[in-house]
Amino acid sequence: MSTNISQEVYAALKEFGLTDYETRAFIALITNGISSAKELSDRTKIPYSRIYDVLVNLENIGFVNVISGRPMKYQAERPAYVAKLAKKQIEEKYQRIEYALLEKLEPLYGHEENIESTPIWILNGDVNKKINEMIRNSQKTLTIFLHIPKEEMLEEYFESFLFLTEKKVDINIIVDQNYLKIKNKNIWRKLTSVAKIQVINNVLFDGFLFDYDEMVMFLTTFFKLSIKEEDMVFLIQESRLINYTKTYFKMIWSMGEKFLLKNYS
Fold first, then answer.
1. Strand segments (E) across 158-237
2. Given 5, 158, 205, 219, which residue has the most CB atoms within 10 angstroms?
């Protein structure tokens, strides 16, 4: 059996941490079924002297099962199982990173500094107009966190999103699937045409991150407050908070799943 595998699949497996040989061997087992080491070596052009090390590594991370016999055969795990396994390993990896950064290194940071002011302000007045301006001023990336997605807000900003696509600005949206209620399918169709959208179990807040340089955060959803039915909106330009948010985004983006409108119809 043979099939065309896109480079996107190879790139995704390598991004997870597989080597080129491991990626080729795993895909060959998926596409050709149970195989011996010699058969795999012949199909993938992986040197026979290396193929056993490759298969042992794949077995150790749970991607491959060994079938006893003479010769031994190898079988790939189902891709759906491997996806869950990979997601779990990534989550554990970032938990270790987060623990090291926040619990061990953060208390050691900046004790000698004398910080006179922190560049954080409350946005007043026409907040939507200000956010629209900031969206349109983005030069490279716009990152949107949606803890409680508001379709009316997304509709209001859509023309600005469209403007960014003409500037070739990357738009990434991460959505909390626990609060995702689709009423206006059209706005979500339009969003998928201009942005990459991932869904995840828990997004901490609603906010916009502009070029990893400054951020608008809706604190009412973060603290679960309601202040006269209005949002408490902060403009943040403090570099450490921006860096934490950037790291947080990369972590939850890697743990999320691609948004498909049909799953929420």
1. 170-176, 196-200, 206-210, 214-218, 233-236
2. 205
Provide the CATH number for the domain formed by 7-77 in this structure. Answer: 1.10.10.10
Q: Which CATH class is domain 117-264?
A: alpha beta
Map out the domains of the chain as residue ranges: 7-77, 117-264
Q: Which residues contact 214 (CB under 8 A, 6 or more apart)?
A: 134, 235, 236, 237, 242
